[in-house]
Amino acid sequence: MNTGKVTLVSAGPGDLDLLTFRAAKAIAAGDVLLIDDLVNDDIATLKAAHARVVRVGKRGGCKSTPQAFIQRLMRRYALQGKHVVRIKGGDALLFGRAGEEIADLRHAGIEVEIVNGISSGFAAAAGLGVSLTHRDHCQGVIFVTAHLRDGTEPDWATLAATGMTLAIYMGASRIDSISEALGKTLAAGTPAAVVQWAGTSREKRLVATLGDIAACAAAHDIASPAVILIGGAMGEAMEAVSARSEPAMRRLSA
Amino acid sequence: MNTGKVTLVSAGPGDLDLLTFRAAKAIAAGDVLLIDDLVNDDIATLKAAHARVVRVGKRGGCKSTPQAFIQRLMRRYALQGKHVVRIKGGDALLFGRAGEEIADLRHAGIEVEIVNGISSGFAAAAGLGVSLTHRDHCQGVIFVTAHLRDGTEPDWATLAATGMTLAIYMGASRIDSISEALGKTLAAGTPAAVVQWAGTSREKRLVATLGDIAACAAAHDIASPAVILIGGAMGEAMEAVSARSEPAMRRLSA
Question: Which of A196, A220, A225, B251 could make a disulfide contact with A204, Cβ separation 3.0–4.6 Å?
Answer without folding.
Answer: A196
